[in-house]
Amino acid sequence: MKNGFVRVACAGLETKLADTEKNAESIIGLMEEAGRKHIKVMVFPELAITGYTCGDLFFQDTLIKGAEDALKTIVEKSASIDGIFAVGLPVLYNGKLYNCAAVFSRGEILGIVPKMFLPNDHEFYERRQFTPGFFEVDEIEIAGQRTLIGAAQLFSTESVRGLTIGVEICEDLWVACPPSIKQALSGATMILNLSASNEVAGKSDYRRELVSGQSGRLYTSYLYASSGAGESTSDLVFSGHNIIASNGRVLKEGHLRENGLIFTEVDIDALLSYRRGSSTFEMEVDPEFVISEFSLEKEDVELSYEIRKTPFVPNDPKSRAIRCREIFDIQARGLASRLKFIHAKNVVIGISGGLDSTLALLVVRRAFEILGLEKSGIKAITMPGFGTTDRTYNNACKLVKEIGAELLEISIVNAVKVHFEDIGQDINNHDVTYENGQARERTQILMDYANKVGGIVIGTGDLSELALGWATYNGDHMSMYGVNASVPKTLVRYLVQFVADEAEGEFAEVLYDILDTPVSPELVPADENGEIAQKTEDIVGPYELHDFFLYYIVRMGFAPKKVYKLAMHAFDGTYDKETILKWLKNFYRRFFAQQFKRNCLPDGPKVGTVSLSPRGDWRMPSDAYSALWLKELEEL
Q1: If you count DSSP H runs as helices and E runs as strands, how many of each does the chain have, helices first?
Q2: Cβ-count burial of 79 within 10 angstroms (0-12 exposed, 13-18 middle, 19+ buried)?
């Protein structure tokens, strides 16, 4: 409930056809279970109180009256349960029978929503018993309460910012223009669908795509509860296919053939963020909608599902391999298009033996293959300095050899010493000038050599470094095309591993050793054992944390407290509260302070949902303050 999360559920029933009292008992039992599990929104199947396949029994006054009496009992029992519920039943209104959803909370019937579209073909004959629903809202007396009836209803609460609920019933979703479209455009962020969808071969796949697709198009969460066991199997089988989706992704799914429920949490803040960031989702509030208010108790929700530590990287190895191949191809084709446009057959790239330059070189190789260019046009320059270790130097040389590129070695030591003498820099003072002087010398070499061979300099810096400003201004910060510009560090590692896993022999060995090498700019001398002394993550923090922060801050626009809460859940057992808070504060400070570097970035291909290009996804003044964000974290 706090931080925008709401626990929701779809209920499955072992229906007793036409036995409204027994069905009411089952419904109440599941509602009470929902209360114990802190579920706040729950949807039952279509005509759950009677069963969907009652046929001409719906013409019987006894069944209609029994359904209304059962609803009265169910609603009364809800008085002590904190939640909002939607249950299906037949409703007699103005002499006609309607297939409806009763929406109620805390003992009050908030509204009766009729099914708008009745299937009357193939295996369905709903128009034999029911009348198509109507949009405009009227009053009705039902189950001892005066309430509203009509499809133009939404249900909203101030307990969760942005939570507004719309309701549609089964076929309503399957038509060309579902009611949920108008509901979402009028403010609904959650759609409840009470359904009785039978099973035929292949239908469950289509149903899943339909539900997830609708949630994605409308930036909503979508709860779909379908009839299961107990329905007549004379001609049809109902499997109780229940689905909870949000913004195009199925969060939970199950086939409940007996009493039971599936539940998870949906993030209303995320949906509001997606809508806010979309220029094509335009609210068109229909003035005919009546909004009924309900209240929920505010409480922390312990998330029942895993939040991935690496939001940029799929957990599933198969999905990850597909994603890596796709991203690698985008990078390579972006570079190939640029080289073709400027008629360049040579590129210049600095090779350090680290992850970023390795990925960039692999991308260059692939771009040259796409264009059919000779690999000798790849001018890979290793530029040893004061902090270069044998391990990274040797790996850089081996990698270039395996790629088939031309290797050049240009030491920066003498040039930097002369430069330090010119500006009066003590070579024993390993300050920022000492480090940046080396980075800028390397960039000067690359730029000038590119001029010499008529090529362009390929940038190697990644998205995580750009977010943190971990780059020397006009040093490694600058290039003529940055192929890694929108690839976060955690993904860089998987992209290199993806290539390594498909490689063989010494090529695979060198890639795996690079993957095993600590991330470092190597701008200070090695330790007494000749090992890397300057480890980036010791200075700026773990990249897995920063990439997590980057995703939820930039992609989702979440407030600092929510980002912190999510990180605590995702990294439980990996980092303690103090560590997460320390690096989150550091991220905010650096992200704001280093915007000036991002405001003059070179071109580079966007490969995912987050990019910090000043010409594309992220426009921010260089002199914005981080005070408000840091103040919120001080309250933790």
Answers
A1: 20, 20
A2: exposed
pTM: 0.90
Helices within 388-459 (DSSP H only): 390-403, 413-423, 432-453
Annotated catalytic, 397?
no
Per-residue HEC secondary structure of 19-49 comes to CHHHHHHHHHHHHHHHHHCCCCEEECCCCCC
Fold annotation for 317-634: Rossmann fold (3.40.50)
**Cα distances (Å, whole numbers) of residue 315 to 306, 311, 321:** 11, 9, 10
614 vs 602: CA distance, rounded Å: 10
Q: Cα(479)–Cα(604) distance, rounded to whole angstroms?
A: 10
User: Which amino acid is present at 445?
Assistant: I
| Among the listed residues 487, 6, 483, 44, the one whose alpha carbon sits nearest the alpha carbon of residue 240 | 44
Residue (of 184, 159, 191, 208) closest to 278 by Cα position:
184
User: Taking the domains of the chain in order of start, what are their residue ranges?
Assistant: 2-293, 317-634
Q: Which of 10, 33, 46, 562 is catalytic?
A: 46
CB-based contact 484:460 (threshold 8 Å): yes
- Give per-residue pLDDT as tens, 410-469: 999 999 999 999 999 999 999 999 999 999 999 999 999 999 999 999 999 999 999 999
Q: Would residue 115 show up in a list of annotated catalytic residues for this protein?
A: yes
Say which CATH topology domain 2-293 has: Nitrilase/N-carbamoyl-D-aminoacid amidohydrolase (3.60.110)
- φ, ψ of residue 378 in degrees (nearest 5): -90, 110
Is 375 noted as a catalytic residue in this protein? no
Residues in CB range of 28: below 8 A, 6 or more apart: 73, 74, 77
CB of 160 within 8 A of CB of 1? yes
Q: Report helix, strand or coil for 523.
A: coil
Give long-range contacts, CB 8 A cutoff, 24+ apart: 14-17.
14/228, 14/229, 14/230, 14/257, 14/258, 14/259, 15/45, 15/48, 15/51, 15/52, 15/227, 15/228, 15/229, 15/230, 15/231, 16/51, 16/230, 17/50, 17/51, 17/53, 17/54, 17/230, 17/231, 17/232
Mind listing the pLDDT tens digit for each residue in 490-534? 999 999 999 999 999 999 999 999 999 988 776 778 777 777 767
Q: Which of 115, 252, 398, 562 is catalytic?
A: 115
Backbone angles phi, psi at 174, to 5 degrees: -85, -5
Separation between Cα atoms, residue 354 and residue 523, nearest integer Å = 13
Query: Distance from first CA to last CA of the chain, Å, rounded?
Result: 18
- For residue 599, give both structure tokens: 């405001």
88/93 Cα distance (integer angstroms): 15
> Which of 10, 100, 170, 324 is labelled catalytic?
170
CB 563 within 8 A of CB 622: no
